[in-house]
Each structure stands twice: as structure tokens, then as C-alpha cells.
Amino acid sequence: MKKTTSFILGATAIVAVSAGVAGLTASYMMPKEQHQTLTFDEVFQTDPNTRLAALDATQMQPVDLTKAAESSVNAVVHIKSTQESKIQNVTVRDPFYEFFGDMFGNRGGGQQRQVQTPERVGFGSGVIISKDGYIVTNNHVIDKADVISVKLNDGREFQGRIIGTDPSTDLALVKIEGDDLPTIPVGDSDQLKIGEWVLAVGNPFNMTSTVTAGIVSAKARSLGVYNKGVESFIQTDAAINQGNSGGALVNARGELVGINSVLYSPTGSYSGYGFAIPTSIMTKVIADLKQYGAVQRAMLGISGRPLDNDGQTMDAEMKKKAEELGATEGVWVAEVVENGSASGILEVDDVIIGIEGKRVKNFAGLQEELAKHRPGDKVKVKILRDKKEKTVEIELKNEQGTTKVLKDADMEILGAAFREVPDEVKRQLRLNAGVEVTGVTEGKMKAAGVRKGFIILKANGQIVKSVEQLESIMKEATRSTEPVLFLQGIFPSGKRAYFAVDLTQE
To answer: What's the whole-model pTM score?
Structure first.
């Protein structure tokens, strides 16, 4: 496994500073009133005695970072993620198939062969946030991992298990079994000031317990590395390299204020800036993962553009638009989604300039403030409308347009058993892929009319080659605005069939 998992080539490279192996999270809906939402401190066993009685960071002249380093280094762990060697069936396709294979992908003259994939190993960092062994790290550190090994600063090693992951914020929660483990106090990243000293603690280049220092260079940075995910990074010039991913960004008081995640560099190693996920986002995401297995993400239900373009030069059209609106910063509302949170409240050409008393300059800042809230929360949004400031109250909804709690979904909701189609059956039916339904009980499959023996060839338009792939497609569907699994396939008799499986949870 290569240690650099993400490159954007060009004048510079943006690198997720680890390598790794985890799957996607998914969810189903349950009534909100059945669950009591807990705070981060209620979810995790924090130790109030670990906070340092240090001077205020801004009063330290010169800044003494030794206490901060001592308090944090033992709570930062080394993570080794292993993707084990596997035997996979691959199809060698002939040229005839390329022209005449049908739309199902199930008729071809290809030959089945077995290949063994190599073992892949990646390294990164993590932060112990609870004395009973909960660790926060980056999703890309443990992505697709079969085995997770966690090594503490004192040399002890544990096997970790994944509690939950959130690719949208690149965060993951891992658990090791232990008692009275060293933790780091969690600080408020909102209180960070530009120019304030911070430490980056982690395991770069597979070296344990490395501490580097720098200052906060900027806040609410967006880099576009998470594919429309939530980005509002803390930018720092503390040296961050491959292996630092998932490690701690610590202020001068020894408090965790961010999770180091991305390196911005022209070379792929440190020579520029590092970026960390702020604790303002982390605390809510990680608490959700422990309570529900999935993040309760609130959506405002608008589309638009930042008027300051995140510090970049706006084009002539947007400059003219900003002048018309009388705004120099904020988020311009270009569209209000029907039945979304803002429907009937916000209007096209409104400019969002604040949420809950916090100033909103750009999309990154807007995302950060929304990421602190759950569906059902009511927030006060300050807008500029017709060049006049106005405050409105909006009840936030999830991406499905409800305020219900989303729970992690698994294959049990389908009420069926599956297996990959045996090679003999593939030869008989001339198939190249497919998953066979080997049994149906009470559940979504039975309600849709699916029977034992049905071979699933496509699910929601994607060719299905394994049970794991079917599960991934199903989980993605449960999180969409239309939680339906459209199945295309064939029975052993050769009869084709189509089913629509309703994944809605009551």
C-alpha cells in the first residue's frame, strides 16, 4: 500500500497524509423521539483532571510548548492498517464480447480466472479521546482495512475495531479494549486565533511520537479534496508529513483543536502547509458515530456561491452580482430546494452572512457551522435581503428531507441470504457476474416479491459482482432521497426479472 493515498497533480499536490483501508457508512431512518441525543462529553469518558493549569496562550512570552507536548504525546497512537491478501475471480473478456455483450453484462465469451491480490499495509496516527479506548482518526487511514493495529507511545499494542466512519468529513472512530488509557483534553477550535502557536503530534514516515510546531495560518479553508464533503480546515505551517494523518493538532494549553489530515505541497512531502479538521466538526461527528453508527447531517437546502470565493479572485459576473446585492462576503443563495430546510424562508438572492451569531464569510464557514447541528435543530440565520440585514429561524432537515434519526443499516433489513454465483452456474447461464439469493425470510426482499434462486445482475444500475458490493449499493441507497433498490437479474430458468425494493424505515 502506497503511503500517499490522494494526489492532485499540477503545480502543487494535495495529499491525504497517510495510507489506509474502510467502508462507507449508511443509514436507515428511525423516529427521532426514540433517541436521546447526547453531547460529546456525555458520550465519551473524558477525564476532567487532564486539563492543564497553564497560562493563557496569548500571554506566554516566549511561548513554552513543553507542557502541551508532554500532555498530548502519550494520547497520540500509531495505527497500522492491513488489507489482507485475497483470492478474487476475474474475467478475461474476448473482443467478441466487447461488441456483442448485452446490457446486463451477463453474456460473454470471457474466461474466469482466479488471482491473488497482494497484502497492502498503511500507516497513520490516531488520538485517544476516551479513557476506555475510543480513538479518533481519519477515514482514509483505515479505509478498507481488514486488520487494524494500534500501538501506544509506551509500546503497548492493541487490535482496533471500527465503530463508524464518515467519508464526507474524513473522520473515523476506532475502539481498543483498555482501561484508564491516556487521553487528551478536547478544546474549542472556534477560539483559535490566526498567529496562535500549535503543535502537530503524530507518526510521520512511520516514526512514533513526533512533535512539530507552527502557527495557525488561516481558518475555514476549503481545498476540494473530499469530493463535495465537508471542508473547513485549520491551516498551519507546522510540519506535517505522510503518516501524520489522524494525529493531533494541539494548542499551547495542551488541548486538542484539530485532527491533522491533509498536506499541501509541491513535492508530496512537507514544504508548504498542513490542514486539520477542527474539533468544532470532529466532536459532533464522532459523537454521532458512537450513538448511531451514522452522522446525523443537517442540510440547509440551498445552492449558491461564496461572494468572496474563498479568498480567490471572483469572475466579472460574480463581482457584478455582489455589487447588486450590496455584499462583500457571505454565501449567495442561487436556489432554494423544494421541501428543504430553507423552503419558504430563504429566497433567491438572499446572502447568508451568519448562523447562530457566528459570521459566515464563505461556503467552508457555512459548512462548519451546519456540521455542528443535527436535523431537528432550530438555528437563527442572518441574511442580507434587499441590502438590509434580517434574521430568520430555520428548522434543519436531513438529506432525505426529514428530521428523523438515521441509523446504520445492514443487510439484515433485506431479510435474505446471498452468495456469489458459483462458477458452474455462471457457465450454464453464460454470466460474468452476479449474486444469488439463497433464501428469503421476512423483510424488504420478500415484500418486493424477490424469491429464492433469483440472481441479481444489477442493482441501481451497477453490475453486481459480490455480496459486499451489493451491500455497499444498498447502504448508499438508504441515505438517498429515494431509498429504493432497483434490481435486474435472471432466474436459473433463464427468465429475466425486475424488482423495486423499498428501503424506507418506519
So the answer is: 0.72
